[in-house]
Design brief:
heterodimer, A: 185 residues, alpha+beta, Heat Shock Protein 90, globular, B: 132 residues, Transcription Regulator spoIIAA, 6 strands, 36% helix
């Protein structure tokens, strides 16, 4: 076990991992993770714009994990701790900028719609992405989470690159969604 | 009606809405998970204010960060003010952004392109009120 810890340390160090977390997410935990990211970035990244963009992307990704999560089920009005949204997040330094990786279980029925949304975003150059953001903001439709489809567009705008994603079928109702966002400086 | 004053937190902005002067202010960070809960009282307040507004209303927005969940709610605030303007009152949004924060300037321009209220983009040195 002690050797495992050393190996883990080496592994995290080699991949220049700033933060990684796997488990149930509460709003307080999201606040704490964001605080940790902000402090680490202040020491690592001299460019304020990059710091802000990474913070923004991490925030949107964590809130996506929190809201769009197949484990978030309420049993007759009482949420049990095991029903908190589960996710995995890893933030690492890359050759040019930072990588924000997140993963969570989602409803299998939503996979096609999300895939379509991501493909549409990835096909747009920056000026059209901005236009898509404006249109989505202006059209006034809300999801019950409040964002109404803006989150991924915003993540793509802040990233400046394409969103890398994957879906792995889990069972008849669920799929595992993974997202890799590169924030380049 | 009374002023709406809310102290900022690590995830919610400082709010200062004064019905006597028409000075409205939103400052700090707006990144709560449930933005609709936070913004509901602000929208309700503006709804009431709109029934007997000051001849001049100025909303100062000075945000360091806001999430996409807040962005629709902020649009709703602007829409309420659009209504105040439509009844013949002067309404201005003063959108503050840090000198090197192009993204925040763009965000202001995005709203200005959607909302029928004059926006003034104001470049500042540094946004305060974030960390409480």
């Amino acid at each position: 076990m002690l050797q495992t810890i050393h190996d883990l340390y080496d592994e995290l160090e080699r991949h220049r991992v700033m933060l990684s977390f796997q488990g149930p997410l509460s709003t307080d935990l999201i606040t704490a993770l964001l605080g940790a990211v902000e402090r680490k970035m202040e020491g690592l990244e001299p460019d304020q714009r990059t710091r802000r963009r990474v913070f923004n992307v991490v925030m949107e990704c964590l809130q996506n994990l929190f809201h769009h999560n197949a484990n978030l089920t309420i049993h007759e009005g009482t949420t049990r701790t095991t029903d908190l949204p589960h996710g995995v997040v890893m933030i690492a330094q890359a050759d040019q900028g930072y990588q924000v990786l997140t993963g969570n279980f989602m409803a299998g029925a939503d996979v096609e719609r999300l895939k379509g949304h991501l493909d549409r975003i990835n096909a747009l150059p920056p000026d059209q992405l901005r236009e898509f953001y404006r249109e989505t903001l202006a059209d006034g439709t809300y999801s019950n989470k409040g964002g109404g489809g803006l989150g991924m567009i915003d993540i793509a705008r802040k990233s400046g690159g394409k969103l890398e994603y994957g879906f792995v079928p889990y069972d008849k109702d669920k799929a595992f969604f993974s997202l890799n966002v590169n924030v380049t400086n | 009606m009374s002023a709406l004053i809310l102290e900022g937190s690590p995830k919610t902005p400082t709010v200062n809405f004064d019905p006597e002067t028409g000075f409205l202010e939103l400052r700090g960070r707006s990144i709560p998970e449930n933005s609709i809960d936070f913004y509901k009282p602000l929208i309700d307040w503006l709804d009431k204010y709109g029934r007997s507004p000051q001849p001049k209303t100025a909303l100062h927005v000075q945000l360091e960060y806001f999430n996409t969940s807040s962005s629709k709610c902020i649009l709703d605030l602007f829409k309420k003010l659009e209504g105040v303007r439509a009844t013949g009152n002067e309404v201005t949004v003063l959108w503050h952004y840090e000198a090197d924060d192009e993204d925040m300037l763009e965000a202001g321009e995005d709203y200005a392109g959607i909302i029928n209220i004059p926006f003034k983009m104001i470049q500042i040195e540094e946004v305060d009120g974030g960390e409480q």
